[in-house]
TrEMBL record:
One Pfam family, short name: TraG-D_C
Record keywords, A-Z: Cell membrane, Membrane, Transmembrane, Transmembrane helix
Domain TraD/TraG TraM recognition site per the UniProt entry, residue ranges: 18-136
Protein name stated in the entry: TraD/TraG TraM recognition site domain-containing protein
């Protein structure tokens, strides 16, 4: 990512096309301590970080509460899958999804007859218990500038191009593994100093 930022600066400020930096298992495998501080800076340089965590608390364990809040706030697109068992986080997501007005009809009976009235009340669009109960294969999308959305995910391995995608993934994984194994004991390899 740092090399990409240097290249962006040589190219006038931004990479064109942008580079995706996919940080899978970011709290376990690639614990980049200053990631929360880098997040918005990277985006402004055309380096788009995609950070994948198993839970919000896992991120707090690595970057602290302030760091995880900064990372969360800087991310313009958030995709939350099923399996949320953290009540506080589920409530936070519910608040982010917002409220909507619901009509309530009240009917009363008195000596003079029956009367009815309609009142409005606020209700959560997606209560915390509904977030906790998201079925596998669905996700909550929170993106800057749009209303929250519930998505049905389409697994790549069920798509018509699954064989081609699987072969490309296997080839890329083998190349990454080969480069990692080629690393010399001195801490340097053909790609420069060790991270």
């Amino acid at each position: 990512m740092r090399a990409a930022v240097l290249q962006a600066e040589r190219d006038g400020g931004r990479l064109d096309p942008p580079m995706l930096a996919i940080l899978d298992e970011a709290a376990n495998v690639c614990k980049i301590q200053d990631l929360p501080d880098l997040y918005s800076h990277l985006g402004s340089r055309g380096v788009i970080p995609i950070t994948i965590l198993q839970s919000y608390r896992q991120g707090q364990r690595v970057w602290g509460e302030t760091g995880m809040d900064a990372l969360w706030s800087a991310a313009t697109i958030k995709l939350i899958g099923s399996g949320i068992d953290d009540a506080d986080f589920a409530d936070k997501l519910s608040r982010l999804a917002g409220d909507h007005e619901v009509q309530t009809l009240s009917v009363s009976t008195s000596a003079s007859g029956k009367s009815s009235s309609v009142s409005m009340r606020q209700e959560r669009v997606l209560p915390a218990d509904a977030i906790r109960a998201l079925p596998k294969g669905s996700a909550l999308l929170l993106a800057t500038g749009i209303r929250p959305a519930l998505l049905n995910l389409k697994p790549w391995y069920r798509e018509p191009d699954a064989d081609r995608l699987g072969a490309a993934s296997k080839k890329a994984t083998a190349a990454i593994t080969e480069r990692a194994l080629a690393k010399a004991p001195s801490g340097r390899d053909q790609y420069g100093p060790a991270a």
